[in-house]
Amino acid sequence: MKFQIPSALPGAASARRTLCKCALLGGLLVGIDPCAAAQDVYWHQRVSLFDKLPVSETDIVFLGNSITDGGEFAEMFGMENCINRGIRSDVINGVRKRLRQVTDGHPAKIFLLIGINDVSHGLPAEKIASNYEQLVKEIREATPETELYVQSVMPINNDFKRYKNLVGREDVIPALNALIKEIAVNNGATYIDLWGALADESGSKLRREFTNDGLHLTGAGYQAWAGAIVPYVKEEPAHDATLLLKNKIE
Hints:
Number of strands: 5
Low-confidence stretches: 1-9, 19-32, 239-244
Number of helices: 12
CATH architecture of the largest domain: 3-Layer(aba) Sandwich
Distance between the termini: 10 Å
CATH superfamily of the largest domain: SGNH hydrolase
Shape: globular
CATH topology of the largest domain: Rossmann fold
Structural class: alpha/beta
Order of helices and strands: HHEHHEHHEHHEHEHHH
Oligomer: single chain
Mean pLDDT: 87
């Protein structure tokens, strides 16, 4: 069966805005950010679901934030053991809090993609990398037999002017990626550089055809990401694996 990439759900953004508005009064009364509260609700919903879906030793786990959350990996790779453990807006320490849901199952592989939301929170690359290293060490200690693939933080494109907290933070991402690469090497993980597969001709921005908000991926973006990692997922020669994926998606 061919992988058909659906268009983005038309009501997703408005639904989130509505949820934030509905939380506004209560949030103001108790002195919290209602949108943050709404995200906290979603985080716990996903975590409670993952509690009911234990990971097994044959699973390939995709672990991360909203970019991972939006991926249909089992369909993209034609492998039922590819499972999604992404939660939108998650940060490194959020993944650490729920890590045992993954590591207790000792999966075959983990593909980790996390850090862009930490960048948006204004943290310096060194602080983010420190938290990141703790996460990687915890994975390594909990399930040393698991093959760990550490993916670079993806490029962004602030031409869309959607995410104000990422404006002026573009240079933090390459600096963070350099540190993440060192962390991977020092902890026996495989580093996967996604930049070349996703960046535009300038080498500094996410390609416009891969996003509609400057951060998250469209179908074409997911196809490009999948093409970059399929040799590690399927353990096939890069040119053969990319051709297989291309035929499946098209």
